[in-house]
Design goal:
two-stranded antiparallel ribbon, mainly alpha, single chain
Amino acid sequence: MTESIASPALWAVTVAVLLGLLALDFVLTRRPHDVPMREAVGWSVFYLALPAAFGAYVWLAHGGTAGVEFFTGYVVEKSLSVDNLFVFMLLLGAFAVPAALAQRVLLYGIVGALVLRGIFIALGAALLSAGTWAFLLFGAVLIVTAAKVLRDALRGGEHQVDPGSMRGTRLLRRLMPVTDEYHGARLTVRRAGRRALTPMALVVAAVFLTDVVFAVDSVPAVYGVTSDPYLVFATNAFALLGLRALYFVLRNALAKLRHLNHGLAVILAFIGAKLVLHWAHTVWPSVPDVPTPLSLLVIVATLVAVTASSLLANRRDAAAAAAGQ
């Protein structure tokens, strides 16, 4: 069994708070509207303050090691969740989602991601309980993923979304008719006495399918920081909860982070190597084990570096464009 700081009561309280926050989000998005910047910034600040307060509680109640693990895992998850936002942004554009419905689509995506992360976290805990070889498996998954992300980044490849090529959306179109227009936030409508899907149902299905891909990378990445299933779940939950508001804050800035994938590749490769070293350390104690504080330093430094390099590259291109006029 993997060790955890959480008692059954703490799990119950955490899940109850999570469900309460999701219910609040559904109430807030019940009336479709385009989210103004002031509202998005307010909720983003709230969802940043929430994990900060929780991390302080973990630090004070369970020690500095657990606190550092939580904050490191949260930073990893938050950086990976920004990549989620790129894909969500492309899906919203590909399905021509009205601006007023964007936040409801994002909320469905967040709920789907939380469910999938919960399943993957439970499976990961079971694998870790079965033996330390799971660390080697997780490390290999992350290193392979990092190589793919870096290859695409070096080729200049960007996220591409083709809704028509998604098996899930094709299957839905075969099973039920699909209306040409949106009907608010409704997923189905009745037409000519027959139930039909709306484009809203297709985009939600597409978002859910992309959640599966991100969960495969995300959960092993956090297990590379901590083997505590509760902390893994908490970092995932806190990182995902703020995505809806963060999308509206960053939707104009996301395209400017041109080097983000380079940084994510470095982070995934580093955590993958850390997992492999941890497995080797359990077999051969002389092999060094990477401490969590060092992991946090490397991850934060990488994110700062790619943000700075992206801004410098954008400024250089803008200056070159101005000179060419």
